[in-house]
Amino acid sequence: MIRRDALLLGVSALFALATPGLAQTIPLTAEETELIRNIGAHNTAIRTMAGRFLQIDTNGGRIEGTFFLERPDKVRFRYNPPSREEIVSVGRGFYVLNRADRTYYAYPQDTIPLRQFLGDQIDLFRANIVGVASADGYMTITIVDETVAGTVEVSLVFDTETLDLAQWSLVEPNGTELTFSLYDVEKNVEIPRSFFYIDATYTAIDPANRR
């Protein structure tokens, strides 16, 4: 089963914090502060990305696909076959597209946790950081956000050498945990404009009536 809502909850953890949110809530060492600042600067400089993702749910279910990102506010996640679904952000909302029946439904961007990570600049200090840990060459930054669905916790895992985002784990309000890993990532690549476009012939549907 494809966890559409879970990917919508976690996808924005890839991107840059542009507007003020909850402030950092835990004390940090000088070394942690410098590394987090460097992570923000490094990822802000990445204007486009393309690669593959792997989603693993609590029961071990695995789903793979490809993603394309252009800062600010544009991202496309395409699930591998047999799924015909994609998740696209082209501005102030996320859209779930079904290529089989040519329909889509929308989620306002303001309802997505860590939605600010779709902006132009990354500043993790503006997020509600509740935990920081380093081990085996990786730093894990845990952030909490309050959403209409409840409290969502996201742990972002960065490579401390490359400063790249390698993985994030999402704990949903009901306690379900999902992990998203990125691989085969190319940075600052040219992405066709058509990748961030919703076909005008697609029909909008009510999310409550989706299959």
Notes on the protein architecture:
The chain is mainly β. The chain has one domain (4-203): Lipoprotein localisation LolA/LolB/LppX (outer membrane lipoprotein receptor (LolB), chain A, Clam), CATH 2.50.20. The protein has two helices and twelve strands, in the order H-H-E-E-E-E-E-E-E-E-E-E-E-E. It has a twelve-stranded mixed sheet with strand order 7-8-9-10-11-1-2-3-4-5-6-12. Strand 5 and strand 6 form a beta hairpin. The N and C termini lie close together (11 Å). Residues 12-22 have low confidence and may be disordered.
Summarize the helices and strands and which ones pair or pack.
Layout: H1 4-10, H2 30-44, E1 48-56, E2 62-70, E3 74-79, E4 85-89, E5 93-98, E6 103-108, E7 129-135, E8 138-147, E9 150-159, E10 165-171, E11 177-187, E12 203-204
Parallel strand pairs: 6-12
Antiparallel strand pairs: 1-2, 1-11, 2-3, 3-4, 4-5, 5-6, 7-8, 8-9, 9-10, 10-11
Shape: globular
β-strand amount: 35-45%
For the record, give the distance between the C-alpha atoms at the N and C termini, rounded to a whole number: 11 Å
Proportion of helical residues:
10-25%
Strands, count: 12
Low-pLDDT windows of residues: 12-22
The CATH topology: outer membrane lipoprotein receptor (LolB), chain A
- What kind of sheet is the major sheet? 12 strands, mixed
Number of domain units? 1
What CATH architecture do you see?
A: Clam
Summarize the helix and strand pattern as letters: HHEEEEEEEEEEEE
Mean pLDDT: 82
Going by CATH, what is the homologous superfamily? Lipoprotein localisation LolA/LolB/LppX
CATH first level: Mainly Beta
* Strand order across the largest sheet: 7-8-9-10-11-1-2-3-4-5-6-12
Label the structural class: mainly beta
- Count of discrete alpha- or pi-helical segments spanning 4 or more residues: 2
Question: What gyration radius follows from the Cα positions, in whole Å?
Answer: 17 Å
